[in-house]
Write the structure tokens for this entry.
Amino acid sequence: MRKSIPANPKPLLVFVHPGSLCGSYQTAHDWHPNWHRYAETRRAQICTEFAFLDAHKVVVLGSELDDEIPQYPAVQNAVLRAERTYRAGPLDEELRKTARRIWREHSHKSLSVRVTGAWADREDGCAWIVYRELRRLGGGQVILSPLAARFDVPEFEIQTGAVHPVESVPIKSAGVSRDSAALAHNERLLREHIRTNPAWRELGDRLKLIGGTAVCAAFEEDMNLVLRAGVTWAPIQKDILLIRGENCRCHQNVLRLWEANPDLKACTGYALSKDGIWRSHSWCFDQSIHRIVETTGKRVAYHGAVLKRRQVLRRLLEL
């Protein structure tokens, strides 16, 4: 990738042949009783990544199955988020040519490239071919999303389910029982909040499709804002800047940090910790270099909305 930082830098997310995630994916291994559940979950994970990741987004259509996309709302919604549409059929050279075109038109404004879609199988998968060509051009800054769909899925993986790669880290000192108890407790709280505020169902489902295993639900004054304007950041840990404030006071820390550095963006929403649990959180974002700025501790992933200046000023007055 180019070493100079472009204006408003973002990763580039490339979605290859979304039509292949529809009917053909649903029946790819329907001999296995767990396949339909696996396919539905993995499809939802792929579409959630594409829909919400803070990135420039392009889609590569051209599969003979594209006409099925409107029948799958999650796929259609993801495709509609693309800023640009390219076309390439299943032939290797056609896919490589399209990858080179994507590179020419987007590498100058993208810090990295992430390829997803179908299929990610080595050698002949369409997403794999696009990834390899972009990797040849961009080197190590080009990655294949671990969510990208594979046709060759081991039976044990189908049996286990479409486990998200951004998952929980076991609490070794406490053992499995403590993890299970924490999961059950948070799931019970989430169900209770869904009964009083049905919007929690949408937010809870969305967060768990982004990663992790549980959501710590509580009263959420910014629910509508996060659902309407929420985006996802999944930074490399070394790229997160930690400006430590008071422990357990992330919301106040962020307001004070923004007050001293108004060029930063103040964000509110949820962050995924290493224990696999999403919790209410606030953080800052340096848009000029696409960098999360933390005040308490680095998290695994973030999903939330950027507050407008007037919203931040109002909250400062309430401190």
Remarks:
- The first strand starts at residue 10 and ends at 16.
- Residues 168-177 have pLDDT under 50 and may be disordered.
